[in-house]
Amino acid sequence: MVALARSRRIQTQSDDESAFEADVLSGLGATPKRVAAKYFYDATGSLLFERITELPEYYPTRCEMTILRDRAADIAKLIPQGAALVEFGSGSSKKVRIVLEAVRRLAAYVPVDICAEMLEQEAVDLQPDFPQLKVLPVQADIAQPFRLPAPAMAAPMRVGFFPGSTIGNFEPHEAAAFLRNAGRILGKGATLIIGADLIKPVEILNAAYNDAAGVTAAFNLNLLVRINRELGGDFKLDTFEHHAFYNRERHRIEMHLASLKRQKVKVSGETIEFRTGETIHTENSYKYSIESLGALARGAGWQPAGVWTDERNYFSIQAFTLSERRTTPQVGG
Ligand code: AVJ
Asked: 120: Cβ below 6 Å to ligand 1?
């Protein structure tokens, strides 16, 4: 657990414990077996992910940071004074700091993340460096509708920031649903700035998810540690192995946990059987082109408003503005 330096009220909106149990049981009961990637991020998983971002093979974070630093002034032009900045899946505040340093006074900064410990810690770390800034964390699943705090609603406009290629964790249809949901949450006149990993040679992709130090393997296996702890599971960690590979047809990295033998595992009192080599599919990390993400966003009601990449074209930051005409009728607020 991350030690909390100071207690701060965080807006929470989901019944996570029982959702985790229900999702794990239904995912492990399905064929093929799967668990959603969002469940990697307990306190340990969030810290392991921070370590991944520092690995020599894991290029996305460094590329994105470079683009943000080099293009901060251009990106800041999309965030007018008085706007509220809403960060989806905020995690560490490293990236938003670059943006916050480049923009003029904001109505509020609203980090939204599934991990309450992470949100709390980042708010505590950020506040002293931006004493004027209203930091209003919201604990929520970014794929679901959630409410923004009142000062963010009162701002003349809201800008969404969705860095880290987290959008790659969604199936394309879910990414489209996320983009529509973000449009509804941010409202009329909104801008959305997305960091997306780009399609590139397979060797580079495979290396990024199979690091020599084994941190990605530990991150993947931590899901079983979490299930054991929170759901009374009895997974034996040395009987499962980390598998990660690029699926060219679907433009995605897949991560799996493969059972090294035929075995039975108990989770929440239920017995789950594994064949030798059978896997739990734990993550997809979709890779986009500028065009493919643009097309997805357009279909969800957003117009392209800017693209920045690093010199090797490994990673992209893409901006969109909400179209005046909605592609789907708005239901309820
Ligand atoms: C946080 C979803 C962007 O897909 O690269 C890193 C997660 N998984 N290594 C990614 C991850 C394994 C990461 N995202």
From this structure: no
